[in-house]
Write a structure and sequence with these properties.
single chain, alpha+beta, nine-stranded antiparallel β-sheet, 7 helices, 9 strands, globular
Length: 231
């Protein structure tokens, strides 16, 4: 009798375990489906993106990069500007923290990345390279503002003959290279505009770098103040 009860108890435990495993698997599958249905949702889930400005980086002695926290709307820019928790460091006093963040977001990540929704299947079938008409990706609300981002400006400037955008993705369906086809200094051709990387896995990792950049900005500002005092 005791053996029968033990067997029944073991079967119940096994059954409950199987149910819990199935529920957990279903939850993970649903969650993956929600965050992985297209390139934009995958990027938003990643949260942290680092931009290497391929056009202007040679103008600076140090590594030129912009790190952006897409969730909390924080960023650091190696050209002495940053935003953390709604507070701005560097840049002109007349520029608000939200304008500073949005300005860097649309100037560096660009509407080409922010507005493109492409499925994982399409990325795979296209060998991880997606090509689009840039006119279909511009953010019209940014054009109305005083400072139009360069992406929108070039699309609207007919002399540039800006006709194609090409985005290369990695195996995680995240953008790693942005190319524009337009008439530039070297004629009508593909220009690598930006490269993207994802070195930060957690908020604390990103904030460590952000705090370092903010401190660097403060140190530079302090040096300038001392120089002005000394004449």
């Amino acid at each position: 009798m005791k053996e029968v009860k033990k067997r029944r108890f073991s079967l119940k435990v096994l059954l409950v375990t199987l149910i819990l495993v199935c529920v957990a698997g279903l939850f993970i599958a649903v969650r993956r489906g929600k965050i992985g249905k297209d390139s934009k949702s995958i990027l938003e889930y990643q949260k942290f993106i680092v931009v290497d400005d391929s056009i202007n980086k040679d103008q600076y002695n140090h590594n030129f990069e912009i790190g952006i926290d897409l969730k909390n709307k924080n960023y650091y820019n190696s050209t002495q500007a940053a935003v953390k928790n709604g507070k701005k460091f560097g840049e002109y006093a007349s520029v608000s923290s939200s304008d500073s963040y949005n300005g860097i977001l649309y100037e560096e990540v660009t509407s080409a990345i922010l507005n493109l929704k492409v499925s994982k299947d399409e990325i795979e079938k296209s060998n991880y390279i997606i090509e689009r008409d840039p006119k279909s990706l511009i953010t019209k609300s940014r054009v109305k503002e005083e400072k139009t981002p360069e992406f929108e400006a070039r699309v609207l400037d007919k002399t540039d003959q800006f006709s194609k955008v090409r985005i290369t993705y990695n195996q995680d369906y995240l953008p790693v290279k942005l190319e524009w086809y337009f008439k530039g200094d070297e004629g009508l051709k593909w220009y690598t505009w930006s490269r993207f990387s994802y070195p930060y896995n957690t908020e604390s990792e990103f904030n460590k770098k952000l705090d370092e950049e903010i401190q660097r900005i403060k140190d530079i500002e302090k040096e300038h103040e001392v120089e002005e005092e000394d004449g």
